[in-house]
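Help needed: design a sequence for this.
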């Protein structure tokens, strides 16, 4: 399946998540980590950007877990993705839940060209490590947010600890994720992401790590950015 919207997409990555699309909203499925993580990231985003009555874009929204939860907080949410199957699942769940989200199959770069500075808040969570050119996504997100608006990213650090926990641990030992979900070579050190953020005209507001306890199955905010981390930015 080809995706003419942009060259900054790996068809194998899109197809990988498309094959699992029907399981997005099963909290016991391969997407359990996203369901477990979502309250934490939602609370962090809302605490900084105050989502109520804001116009929000969720980049790489998948089946809509974060998109719907932001809409529940009173935001007007648009979710974009290049997986048609995931978006169909998101649309169906939106109808079932009664939570309105506007979903569209379009690349973030194409939307930035069409609707620059159209959003108060842009989120791009757990996506950068799945695209060939993360800096292109960062730049497009910066173009899409209004001056003074917030952009949020989350990704995985490229450290031995991240390989041990996010790849070997999560995919092979605990089997929380399907094997091959992550490519360690695509993990992004915070300094690399920070450089792309500043180059795009954004200023960093906060960087927080996320830690996971496999015994309690609970995620917590942390200063430890060795594995999962989130960055809050503001457009200058």
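Sure. Designed sequence:
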């Amino acid at each position: 399946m080809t995706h003419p919207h942009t060259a900054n997409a790996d068809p194998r990555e899109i197809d990988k998540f498309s094959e699992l699309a029907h399981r997005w909203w099963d909290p016991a499925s391969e997407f359990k980590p996203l369901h477990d993580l979502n309250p934490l990231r939602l609370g962090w985003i809302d605490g900084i950007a105050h989502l109520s009555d804001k116009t929000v874009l969720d980049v790489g929204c998948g089946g809509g877990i974060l998109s719907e939860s932001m809409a529940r907080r009173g935001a007007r949410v648009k979710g974009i993705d290049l997986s048609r199957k995931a978006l169909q699942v998101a649309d169906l769940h939106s109808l079932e839940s009664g939570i309105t989200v506007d979903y569209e199959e379009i690349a973030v770069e194409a939307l930035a060209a069409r609707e620059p500075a159209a959003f108060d808040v842009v989120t791009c969570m757990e996506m950068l490590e799945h695209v060939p050119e993360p800096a292109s996504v960062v730049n497009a997100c910066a173009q899409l947010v209004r001056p003074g608006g917030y952009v949020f990213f989350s990704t995985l650090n490229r450290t031995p600890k991240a390989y041990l926990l996010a790849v070997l641990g999560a995919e092979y030992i605990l089997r929380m994720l399907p094997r091959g979900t992550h490519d360690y070579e695509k993990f992004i050190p915070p300094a690399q992401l920070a450089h792309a953020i500043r180059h795009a005209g954004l200023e960093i507001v906060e960087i927080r790590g996320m830690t996971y306890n496999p015994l309690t199955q609970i995620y917590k905010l942390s200063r430890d950015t060795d594995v999962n981390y989130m960055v809050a930015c503001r457009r200058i």
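Confidence is low (pLDDT under 50) at residues 1-5.
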